[in-house]
Amino acid sequence: MAEAKLYCRRCRHFSPANSSACSNCGASDGLEPFRLEGKKSDGRFVRVWWPTLENTDDAKVAAYLGAGYALFIGSVSTILAISNITGITHNWMGFGVLDCFVGVFYLVCAFFIFRMSRLAALLALVLYMGIKALLLNAGAATGGNVVSWILFGLFLVNGVRGTYTYHDFVAGSVETDNESEQGRVE
Ligand SMILES: [Zn+2]
User: Fold this and answer.
1) CA 21–ligand 1 middle distance (angstroms)
2) Which residues, at least 6 apart from 166, have a Cβ–Cβ distance to it below 8 Å?
3) Model-level pTM greater than 0.90?
4) Domain boundaries along the sequence of the chain
5) Ligand 1 centre from 182 Cα, in Å?
6) Dihedral sign, Cα of residue 100, residue 105, residue 111, residue 116
7) pLDDT tens digits for 82-98?
8) Which residues have a Cβ under 8 Å from the Cβ of 175 and sit 6 or more positions away?
């Protein structure tokens, strides 16, 4: 029989369902039931830019924001680059061979972020920041650019948050499962 678990909001540790305090940090006011694939809290407004991550569903949504944006960057870069390279368009927005590689890289990242890969989420964010840093350094940025970079960059940050939190939740859940299975005869 699967036991419900309690999740500690303070230290993110999992305790058995009948615990009155967290078995890790001892806090008694941070425990709440944990739903591995649970439904969303009623009436909670899902914020696009910084969703709260309370269960694996939330974590997946955040990860999908990152994956979706990586997919967008990947598609646009690849299509515009190929269009310029093949001569359909003429150096439109300056997309070239390098952008084609970047685009394909983002498409690969998007695929793996959709599958909850922390590494892919991290690489997508690091490359994004690197490219923006180069543009800043080259003086190719206005204030408006920078604001939109940060805003859209948050999608990729959420990708990192989502994939890492997802694995934290799943690992914590598995750990608690194993603990509760000790002393139980199959
Ligand atoms: Zn705790």
Assistant:
1) 8
2) 56, 59, 60, 63, 116
3) no
4) 1-35, 56-166
5) 22
6) negative
7) 999 998 888 888 889 99
8) 14
